[in-house]
Amino acid sequence: MPPLSRRHFLTRTASATTAAALAGHHAFSLTPATAANVASGPGRKAPFKVLYSNDATNITSCIAPWRTKGAPLRKEMIEATVDEVAGTGVDAHFLQPGLGMVPMWPSKVIPLKEHYEWIQQRYGTGPDSFGNFVLRGGDVVQVFLDRCKARGQAGFISVRLNDAHHKERAGFEPKDKPGASIGMSVTRHYVAHPEYWLREKSEKGRGYDLVQNWAEREVRVHKFKLIEELCENYDLDGIELDFMRFYNFFRPEETKQAQRRDIMTSFVSDVRALLDRTERNGKRRWLCARVPAILKAHDPLGIHLPSMVAAGLDMVNLSVSYFTVQQTDLAAIRASIPDASVYHELCHSIWNGTKLTPGYDTFSFRRTTKEQYHTTAHLAYARGADGVSAFNFAYYREHGGPGRGPFSEPPFEVFNKIADRQWLAQQPQHWFLAPGWNNPFVRPPILPRKVETGETAVFTLDLAPPKDGWQRDGRLRLQLAPEFPTCKWKAFINGTELAANALVAEPFPNPYPSMLGTPAQMRAWTVPAALLVDGKNKIEFTLESGEAMEMDYFDLAMV
């Protein structure tokens, strides 16, 4: 017998430990957690470099070259979403077929004819465009996977484990007009069992509070059955378990760390065994998890990545929910799971503003630029990432409520070089810190931050130098609210005071004007290249005079 690899050793050890831990515990496993059914294969890493997430709903919510406003779903639209990233560098395409509650495929777990008849009776609304497509004989998953195969992309299905969209409308009556989207968000079983919700009522009207309690075995079994149906019926390359939609699974006051970890690791183990059981032609089916890039969020969600990797998780997709964020715990996570492929997620937005009108998708947002994508990927590789992923990338296109533009086509050309580490290491750098994900795990949030006269705000930026080091001076900019042109600020990097710079304009051409600072909101300073270090850099801003201000954003351009 050949010697065990480190990964196989951890797999067997964790399997035995998990099996013992689950005995007499309310975590479930559809199959015993033995070394045989969680074995992680040959031990090689997943080969993919650029993952592309397709949430499906963008197909009917965005205006695109292949879709006019209001047009219903057609097979050709699904295919177009695969075609538009073909040849760009994307090598694995992840479809989220809906919200993880109601299938976008012919299903025996939730027969759609019965489901939408109940939706009509309960809410007085008909099927959404995806429901109609499947009811008329279509299959969103099959069309997607066939097109991926034809276009040379690995086809993954990403399953949202606890999505919150529209859950706040579950108690609506027909007179409340819940909208067609309710049909993809709730099921008869969900509505009939409010005892499985994390909170039976949300005081703030948030679907986030009304997602299901994963301490309940039946909740997990139901989700597993949907994944099982996908694995048994489709020739897919892999499954992604999306812990980010939404990041709320347990009542913390009722569960302990060990319980949460046992439940989630057991679920990963079960899905690994399912993928192995249903593989075709001896071809490994990959298992990915989309998880927070912030370690503080892991324990509340039951995530312990070393245990999950030992149980057969191949790929870890590090997400900051809806945003491109540079400052994460990627390096520490990488060190904890050396045998898994790790990806850093890139998104279309770095900062969302306030809602302009009531409803979904009505807020302004600051688009991510190509320089910010390049710099974020460069840092990710420097800290150990194997690749990058893209989420919500289609939403540069027109969608949602009024006043959020101007819109544009997504910058798909970014993918052409996003896996080329040497090329990225020679590009201009645009570092930034923005409000980004206002998550419940980091309080108070890093930004925005109110600063009183005489106070100093201190931040840390992890920076990675270009190939030959920083050679030229750069520029640090600070964006404030409200406009107050007479206030006076000082800035420091690594303890050295910086000289003020009158140039406050964007450091690179920016085709996306939404939420950019006005000249009266901006301050700038010159940054000598010699001040910066590879790793953690201390950034300080001191309000010397003027009224209290809110710091919303700052960036550092090094060219």
Automatic annotation (TrEMBL):
It comes from the Bacteria. Keywords: Signal. InterPro entries: GH, TAT_signal. Transmembrane segments: none annotated. Residues 1-35 form the signal peptide. SUPFAM superfamilies: (Trans)glycosidases. PROSITE patterns: TAT (PS51318). The keyword Signal applies. This is Glycosyl hydrolase-like 10 domain-containing protein. It comes from Roseimicrobium gellanilyticum.
